[in-house]
Specification:
CATH superfamily of the domain at 3-95: Death Domain, Fas
Strand content: under 5%
Distance between the termini: 64 Å
CATH topology of the domain at 3-95: Death Domain, Fas
GO molecular function, one term: death domain binding
Protein name: CASP2 protein
Structural class: mainly alpha
Radius of gyration: 27 Å
């Protein structure tokens, strides 16, 4: 495996531990690949670990020693086991939405002079003090009547 691919696996290890789901199917795909990335004893060794995290970790430790095609075969196996988003993360593939998010600009309205009711949400001074006004019976009846109108139309 190329140094770049080993580095990608290292940097994404936590992501992989959190997101790989179908480990048994993934191991089967790696075992059945054109150039088998793992053999039966390696699969047994990985599966002998007591927890899912440790099994995935064992596979991630094994992959860098499995030859120059191990990384690409791993990504193909991820796609075949319906975990393409994991392969996308490893291969640096960005979706159309992600591309748009990188260039997203946010416009903020200009500050108004009278901002008595504006409370910054990130003041980091503790709980936000908010004034909650009680609902008057007249307002409640008005809203209730509006909802009854809406539901009687159906």
């Amino acid at each position: 495996m190329e140094k770049r691919d080993r580095e990608i696996l290292r940097r994404n290890r936590i992501f992989l531990l959190d997101n790989i789901e179908s480990l048994d199917r993934l191991l089967s795909e790696l075992l059945a690949a054109d150039i088998a990335i793992v053999n039966d004893s390696m699969v047994d060794s990985v599966q002998s670990n007591p927890t899912k995290e440790r099994r995935i970790s064992a596979l991630l430790d094994l992959l860098p020693r499995r030859g120059p095609t191990a990384f690409s075969a791993f990504c193909v196996a991820l796609r075949r086991t319906d975990q393409g988003f994991v392969a996308d993360q490893l291969e640096g593939v960005t979706t159309g939405v992600e591309k748009k998010m990188k260039t997203l600009t946010v416009s903020v309205p200009p500050a108004e002079e009278n901002q008595e009711d504006v409370i910054p949400l990130d003041d980091k001074k503790g709980p936000i003090q908010a004034l909650v006004k009680p609902c008057t019976p007249a307002f409640f009846k008005q809203i209730d009547a509006k909802h009854k109108e809406i539901w009687t139309d159906y």
